[in-house]
Write a structure and sequence with these properties.
The structure is a single chain. This protein has a single domain (5-244), classed as Rossmann fold. Helix content is 32%, strand content 23%. The protein contains 6 helices and 8 strands; from the N terminus they run βββαβααβαββαβα. It has helices at residues 47-58, 78-87, 93-108, 124-133, 187-199, 226-244, and strands at residues 5-13, 19-27, 33-39, 62-66, 113-122, 140-144, 174-179, 204-209.
Length: 248
């Protein structure tokens, strides 16, 4: 595996043509690359999620993470920007979809792009990855413990609405990675979503990890579970390899 890559901050056109900051990581010396839109978690556009973007680039994908909080907090720290977003009730769903659409267009326009685009997100980003896959023409989607897809718990940002009703519009295969000890979403909720997708004949694969809760991919948090994270990454590489690889 050639892990040479270039990573940088760029500007892209998001929802309504707004200029939005984004973090781009892409492999060097690769002739044909698939693209991954990486949606950051609720804590924001932070270093740990940028590290994930570089991980995708090391595995041969161009990854772009738009800063969903840029409009209101362009110069704030990730923590302050996330707090401001929460205070406003979260990022509106239509704005997220517009920003993901802009990121997908940016990736398709890169030299060497094969035109195939996937989306992945963790926590609130997992919910938004499902939202994007039900709203845009994409090639693959990965939902990592995204809550508020089936039920919205008390205390969630006001902008969060259930998304399960959009399942009929799912445009691509979906990989779901969840923790058995998670409360947001619970295993019962992810099982309900799986049944809904089965009824609609939507291709999906869900894996629930025993002994893992929310945020088990986060290496810098006590919730990190190495076995679940390692197997989860293996599933992501196999899934994107199946749906995003190849020449245009």
């Amino acid at each position: 595996m050639n892990e040479a890559l270039t990573a940088e901050t760029v500007m892209m056109k998001g929802h309504n043509g707004d200029e939005v900051e984004a973090y781009l990581a892409r492999p060097d010396g690769t002739e044909s690359i698939g693209g991954v839109v990486l949606i950051h978690h609720l804590p924001g556009y932070d270093s740990s999620t940028k590290e994930m973007a570089r991980k995708f680039a090391a595995h041969g994908y161009a990854a772009l993470m738009p800063n969903l909080y840029y409009r209101d907090s362009p110069d704030a720290s990730p923590d302050d920007a996330a707090a401001a977003a929460r205070a406003k009730g979260g990022v509106p769903d239509e704005q997220v979809v517009g920003d993901v659409a802009g990121a997908a267009a940016y990736l398709r326009g890169l030299a060497g792009s094969n035109g195939k685009i996937g989306v992945i997100g963790h926590c609130s980003g997992g919910r938004q990855a499902f939202l994007a896959a039900c709203s845009l023409p994409l090639d693959a989607a990965v939902d990592c413990y995204g809550g508020a897809v089936v039920h919205v718990p008390e205390g969630a940002p006001a902008s969060m609405k259930p998304l399960v009703g959009l399942s009929k519009n799912l445009s691509c295969p979906l990989l779901g990675l969840f923790g058995a000890d998670d409360k947001f979403p619970t295993p019962a909720e992810t099982a309900e979503l799986s049944r809904t997708l089965d009824e609609l004949s939507k291709p999906h694969e869900f894996r629930t990890f025993t002994g893992a809760g929310h945020a088990f991919f986060s290496v810098d948090r006590p919730s990190y579970r190495v076995e679940a994270a390692v197997e989860g990454w293996d599933k992501i590489w196999a899934f994107f390899g199946e749906h995003l690889a190849g020449k245009a």
